[in-house]
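User: Continuing from earlier, I have the next pair ready.

Assistant: Great, send them over.

User: Here they are, in order.

Assistant: Folding the first of the pair now:
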Amino acid sequence: MKKILFGIGVLLAVNTVSAQKLEKLQWFNEPEKWEVKNNSLSMFVTPKTDYWRISHYGFTVDDGPFYYGTYGGEFEAKVKLTADYKARFDQTGLMVRIDEKHWIKAGVEFVDGNMNISAVVTNTKSDWSVISLGKKVPFVWVKAVRRLDAVELFYSLDDRTYTMYRNAPFDDNTPVQVGVMAACPDGNGFNAQFDNFTVTHLPDQRRLQWLDAHKD
């Protein structure tokens, strides 16, 4: 989508941020039931699926639905999450992934009847952090910002005020898979919806610093 801006004798075409074309993404662990319509992805999350590596539980799984594109450099990814969470550990979110040993998932996880803002950061082994929302809410926005050698994670209940809840190390100068994921480790599946998924390119910080230091 383009917006035309008129200046003093100048006509400028400026690219505005629009939702990522979901039809152009691809599946890792495609679920049996899913649909893309009006730039919204809905799916029935495959039962008995998850993402985890080794620590605490002693097992490794890598079989949740993940719908993604491949991006290089620095970026901001964002999505609105809506789901009919039912069973313990039902989850939806964003995923940023290099390979099966290096990935981050961030979003909502349902534990003990509560909705939690959740993050799992995996660097050979996984860790897990949660923030309880203390109530059920109709939807949650999550955002992941990749800058230099880290990814910052944010959540929002209104797409206006965002709270950062994690800053995790992540290899830079490496192409990554970015998209939406879901998992249902304990339950029999649930309905999930992902709206307004965007990936916005951010200028490389080191290059900007170099350019600033080498001005004419």
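And the other member of the pair:
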Amino acid sequence: MDKITELMLQLLRCSLNGQRPQLSDISTDDWEKLYWLSRKHGVVTIIFDVIEKLPEAQKPQGDIALSWELSAERTRFHYNHQSVVLQSLRQKADEAGIGLILIKGMSLAKLYPRPDSRACGDIDVYFPNNYQKGNEILGNPDATLDGKHTEIVFEGVTIENHLHFLDLNYLSQRKAEEYIINSLKDASPEGYLPPMGNLVYLLMHTVCHLTAKVKLPLRNILDWGIFLRSHQDQLDPVECHKVMRHIHMDEAFNILTLISGEFIGTDLSRYIDQNKIIEKDVKKIRNLILNKDYLPPVPKELKGLKRIKARYNRRSQRRWLYRYLPSSAWERFISIIKQSN
């Protein structure tokens, strides 16, 4: 791991744990490299929370200091605007007599030391048993379903209205979806998934980045660790593993929890079955996240057997990942055939 990546993780841990970093002199060039790396991973403002508390002599200076400040200001402005829009949407849902469940980014930001430092791209919502009514409230009753949700711009913010929580391509995903739906009876009055339902949802959502694109953003890993840390009194490790075995995601639960605990600087070992940790895979997934070592997509112009072969070869390069994905070997084979037609 290079020194800029190590510095980024050090400052992230300090920010997420309210600690003051022990820094040597950092050159302007290193501050600039750190800025662009942090921006690449979507954590500029979280790190800026620590920078603001440094002695003046240790802070970045000149143009790069301005870049940090402007990026943080944009993140916070966007978050605060989204919060106003979310309140407006909740009010419309209340007036229509339907519930609204907030999921993903905006629902997790409240768990961070400073919620408006957690960058959020859009707002993800679920209207229980009222998907179509939700589209109407959002102002586009004829919106086209794209996979598991529609995307509608509401008061200047993109809202993803979910018909389903997850893609339902594989048995594990369908089992997880059923579990989440059943958990809604225990949703909070404020409109959040209950801890165990959210545990299943967040784990599957995080792993889906590995499944679909072999892309697992650092921010998703931070979310996972912070969620577990924030709900330690409500999540029984034995029950967690029981549910994870039911949806065939125990290995993914272990390895992502280990890596997220490392990244946020929190001991999450109470959740981890060390006997199921494969150390070489920990290193590989850590590198995938930090280095964004993604495979190029299969060219769209390839058709028929050539496309099938290209997709098979691409997946073969990441064969070691299969044990962590929500799909069996047969389901993956069928998926290659379907997506090649």
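Worth noting for the second one:
Residues 165-336 form one domain. The chain is about 55% helix and 5% strand.
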